Amino acid sequence: MAPRPRRHVHGSLLLYHFAPPDAGTIMDHVSAFTRYSRFPVWAVNVGGGYPPALDRIDPAVVILHYSLFGPAHYPIPPRVLDFLDRTRAYKVAFFQDEYHYRPQRITFLNDHAVDCVYTLVEPTYHEFVYGAASSVRRIVTVIPGYVDDRMARLGSRWAKPDAARRIDVGYRARRLPSHWGRGAQEKAEIGERFVELARGTGLVLDIDVDNASRIYGTGWYRFLGDCRSVLGAESGVSIFDMDDSIRLRTEALLRENPCMSFDELSLRLLAPYEGNVPYRTISPRAFEAATTRTVQILFEGEYSGILVPMRHYIPLKRDFGNFEDVVSWYRDSDLRHDLAERAYADLIASGLYTYQRFIEGVDDVIADGIGGGPHGREQWIGLALSISQAPGMLRFRLRLGASRLARGVWNRRPAGVRDGLRPAVGQLLRAAVRRRRIP
C-alpha cells in the first residue's frame, strides 16, 4: 500500500525533551510558545518517542527547543531526525550552552538544513561562530530566560517582609569544569570567598556550592523569600571552545595530575583563550530574585545591559576589594528596600522582559521567514499527536520511575559501597549514552 500523502498544516511543531527533575525553566520556555504565540503551536516531548501522526502532516514551521541539544548526546529519536529531513518546514533551532561541542552543533545545522538559529552569542560574533561554517540564513541573539506569570506568582507568594527573613545572604551554585575558564569558576568562588570573609561579621549565611545542595522548583522561591540578599554572577563562561580541543587538552593535563589547580591550568593552557568569544549574559536568577524583592549582591558585569549597579544590585568586585563596602551597603535597610523595589519595578512590573514579548519577537521572525506566518486553527492536530504518542509516553514515564527508584536505592547505600561501585556504574552509563547518540 502506498503511504498516505502528508498534509501541509498551518502551524508550528515545537519539539523538546523534558524528563523530571530537569529544571522547571525548560517547561517555562516551552509553555511560552503554546501560550503566547499568535500562531498555532503543537508541542511534542520527544522523550516519548516518535508520534506516528507526524507521518500525516507537514507543518509550516518546526521549532527545535534547546532542551534537545545536550552536551553528551542529542535525545532525538531517529524517526524524528528522518522527519526533519523530509519536511519542507521553516526550521528554527534554539541553542544555549554553546561554548562546547560546537562541531556537533554545526553538523546538525547543516545535516538537517536549519534556517534560523536563536543564540546567546553576541551579534558581532555570529559570523565567527555560525555563519562561516553553517548554512543558517538568520541568527538572532536572545537572553537565557524571561519572566512569566508563574514566576511572578511564586515570587509574590513566598516573598516575606524584610524583618521576617531569617537569612542575610543566601546562595546556591555548583562547581564547573576548568576548561570553561575563569568566568565559570566565579560561580563557586563568589560563594566560597564570601563565606571566608564574612566570618565575624554576624551575618547569617546560607551559602553552598555543592551540587547536592541545589534547590529546585517552588523550594527555590521559598528560599529566596527567606533571604534578604542573594549572591550572583553573570551566566555563561569566559572560554568558548570552538573545536573541543581546549576540553581535550585540559582533560589530558588533569589525567597527568588530577590535583592540578585552576591557576596552574590557566598558566599552562587556558589563559590565552580567556574571552575569545564573549559569552556572558544576565541569568534568569536575576529575574527570580527580583520577584521576591531579594536584594542581589553581584560580581560587577554587563548583565546584557539590563542590570545597573546601585540601582538594581550591590556590585562586588571580583577580587573582593570592596567587601567591607558591600557589607556596609547591605546593612543599610533603606538602601536594601530601594534596590529591591527598583529591581522589581524595572525587571518585573515593567513587562519589558516577559515571555510574551519574547514570543512576539519570535513570531515576527517566523512570519518574515515564511512570508506571512502560519495562520489557521486545525484543532485535531494536537489531539492526534498526543494520542499517537501515548504508548511511547507511557514507556517513557515508566523508565523515569525506574530511574528514580534506582537513584533512591543508590543513595541509600553506604558511601564506601558507592565509591567502590562508581567506576563500573559510570562505565555502564557511558555505554548507554553512546548507544543513544546521533549517528
The total count of strands amounts to 13
Q: Report the end-to-end length measured between terminal Cα atoms.
A: 30 Å
Question: What kind of sheet is the major sheet?
Answer: 6 strands, parallel
Average pLDDT figure: 88
Helix content: 40-55%
Q: Describe the global form.
A: globular
For the record, the count of structural domains works out to: 2
Structure description:
The protein is an alpha/beta fold. 45% of the residues lie in helices and 15% in strands. The chain has two domains: 7-145 and 354-399, Rossmann fold; 149-236 and 280-349, Rossmann fold. The protein has 15 helices and 13 strands. It has a six-stranded parallel sheet with strand order 2-1-3-4-5-6, sandwiched between helices. It has a five-stranded parallel sheet with strand order 8-7-9-12-13, sandwiched between helices. The chain has a two-stranded antiparallel sheet with strand order 10-11. Strand 3, helix 2 (78-86) and strand 4 (90-94) form a beta-alpha-beta unit. The model is unreliable at 433-439 (pLDDT under 50).
